C-alpha cells in the first residue's frame, strides 16, 4: 500500500466513523449527506475505482437469478436463491438490511428516475432529493405522456445534477450496490426542452462516472440509440419488451461482455396495446442469446418467473417455442395466470 493510499484509507475510515448514523429516510437525508461531504472535502477528488460489476453467468454457466420488484407497497419479498434485486430507492432503506440479513451475498440495485420529477415521491423524498417543484425551478419540463404526476427535467441543468448526485450518494450510503436510473432518453420525448442526443449521451456519461465515483455499478435503461456511445461505460443493461418490438439484437454489442436483464409483460396488450407474448415463445430465444429475462405484470410486483426456470419446467413447450415465430405476435389476452403465486 503506498503512503498516499494509506492516508486515503485512514481518511476514509475517519470519514465513515464521523458520518452521522442514519435512522430513517427522514432523519438522514440531505443534511446527513451534506455533513458527510463537508467532512470529506479532502476526499472529494478521491474517486472509487472499483465497483460492483455483475457477471453475465454464474460459474456453473447458469444465469444469476434476478428479481425486478418496484411495487407491492414497499414490501420487498425475499426469494431464496435470488442473487440480484432491483428495487426502488425509496423502499431500499428498509429492504436492504432485511434482504442482507437473509443472504449477505445478495446484490441490490436501486431504481430511481433520473430524467423526471415524480410528484408522488413527496413523502419519501422530502429531505434528500428535490421533491418540491421549486427545487427544480426552470429545469422542470412537460408532463410525461402516460404517467400522470411525472414531468421531464432538463438534464443539461446543474441543478438537476446536484439533486441526482445527492440521490446517488444516498444510494451508496444506504447500501445499494448499483443504480438503475430511468428516463435517460429525453431526446426521444417531448420534454419541453430542446434536448439533443449529444446532451443525453453527455448526461448518461455523467451518471455513469458519478455512480462509479461512489463505488456503485450502473445499468443502462432505454436509450438504445446511444448504446454505441455508452456500452463501455455501463455495467449492464435493462430492457423491457424488446421481444415485442423485435429489436433485442440491438443489445448484441453490449451483451458480448455484460449482462442484459429484461422483462416481458404478461399484460402487455391490456396495458400498452401491443401483443402479449407467451414465455414459451420468447424464452428459448433469450436463453440462446444469453439474455436473462423475466416474465411479469406491468405493475412489477414480486410475482414473476424467469426464463431459465420456465424452460426447465416446460421443456417441451420451450423446444416447440424455439421454432415458433409468427404466432408469437397474435396474443391479445392476459397471460398473467402463468406468474400468479410464482417468483423468479
Ligand atoms: C468508495 O467506496 C467505499 C466503499 O465501498 C465507500 O465507503 C466510500 O464512501 C466511497 N467513496 C466515495 C468518494 O464515494
Ligand atoms: C428495450 O428495447 C426496445 C427495442 O426493442 C426499446 O424500444 C425499449 O426502449 C427498450 N427498453 C428499455 C427499458 O431499454
Ligand atoms: C398486478 O397485476 C396483475 C396482473 O394484471 C394482477 O393480477 C395483480 O393483482 C396486480 N397486483 C397489484 C398489487 O396491483
Automatic annotation (TrEMBL):
Keyword Signal: yes
Pfam family, one: Glyco_hydro_114
UniProt keywords, alphabetically: Signal
Domain Glycoside-hydrolase family GH114 TIM-barrel as annotated: residue spans: 65-302
Domain of life: Eukaryota
Extent of the signal sequence: 1-27
InterPro entries: Aldolase_TIM, GH, GH114_TIM-barrel
Segments crossing the lipid bilayer: none
Name of the protein in its database record: Glycoside-hydrolase family GH114 TIM-barrel domain-containing protein
Species: Chlorella vulgaris (Green alga)
Amino acid at each position: 500500500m503506498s503512503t498516499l493510499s494509506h492516508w486515503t484509507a485512514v481518511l476514509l475510515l475517519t470519514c465513515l466513523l464521523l458520518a452521522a448514523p442514519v435512522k430513517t429516510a427522514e432523519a438522514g437525508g440531505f443534511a446527513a449527506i451534506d455533513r458527510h461531504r463537508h467532512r470529506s472535502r479532502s476526499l472529494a477528488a478521491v474517486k472509487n475505482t472499483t465497483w460492483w460489476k455483475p457477471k453475465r453467468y454464474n460459474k456453473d454457466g447458469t444465469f444469476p437469478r434476478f428479481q425486478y420488484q418496484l411495487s407491492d407497497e414497499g414490501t420487498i419479498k425475499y426469494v431464496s436463491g435470488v442473487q440480484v434485486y432491483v428495487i426502488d430507492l425509496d423502499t431500499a432503506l428498509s429492504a436492504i438490511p432485511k434482504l442482507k440479513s437473509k443472504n449477505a451475498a445478495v446484490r441490490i440495485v436501486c431504481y430511481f428516475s433520473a430524467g423526471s420529477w415524480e410528484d408522488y415521491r413527496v413523502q419519501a423524498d422530502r429531505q434528500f432529493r428535490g421533491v418540491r417543484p421549486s427545487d427544480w425551478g426552470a429545469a422542470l419540463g412537460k408532463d410525461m405522456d402516460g404517467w400522470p404526476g411525472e414531468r421531464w427535467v432538463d438534464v443539461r441543468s446543474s441543478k438537476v445534477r446536484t439533486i441526482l448526485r445527492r440521490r446517488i450518494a444516498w444510494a451508496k450510503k444506504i447500501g445499494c450496490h448499483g443504480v438503475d436510473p430511468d428516463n435517460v432518453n429525453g431526446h426521444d420525448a417531448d420534454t419541453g426542452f430542446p434536448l439533443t442526443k449529444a446532451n443525453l449521451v453527455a448526461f448518461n456519461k455523467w451518471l455513469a462516472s458519478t455512480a462509479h465515483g461512489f463505488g456503485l455499478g450502473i445499468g443502462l435503461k432505454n436509450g438504445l440509440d446511444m448504446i454505441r456511445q455508452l456500452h463501455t461505460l455501463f455495467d449492464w443493461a435493462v430492457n423491457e419488451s424488446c421481444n415485442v418490438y423485435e429489436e433485442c439484437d440491438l443489445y448484441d454489442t453490449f451483451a458480448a461482455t455484460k449482462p442484459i436483464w429484461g422483462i416481458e409483460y404478461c399484460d402487455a396488450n391490456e396495458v400498452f396495446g401491443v401483443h402479449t407474448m407467451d414465455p414459451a415463445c420468447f424464452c428459448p430465444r433469450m436463453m440462446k442469446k444469453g439474455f436473462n429475462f423475466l416474465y411479469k405484470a406491468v405493475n412489477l410486483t414480486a410475482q414473476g418467473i424467469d426464463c431459465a426456470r420456465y424452460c426447465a419446467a416446460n421443456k417441451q413447450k420451450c423446444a416447440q417455442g424455439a421454432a415458433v415465430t409468427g404466432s408469437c405476435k397474435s396474443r391479445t389476452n392476459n397471460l398473467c395466470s402463468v406468474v400468479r403465486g410464482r417468483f423468479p
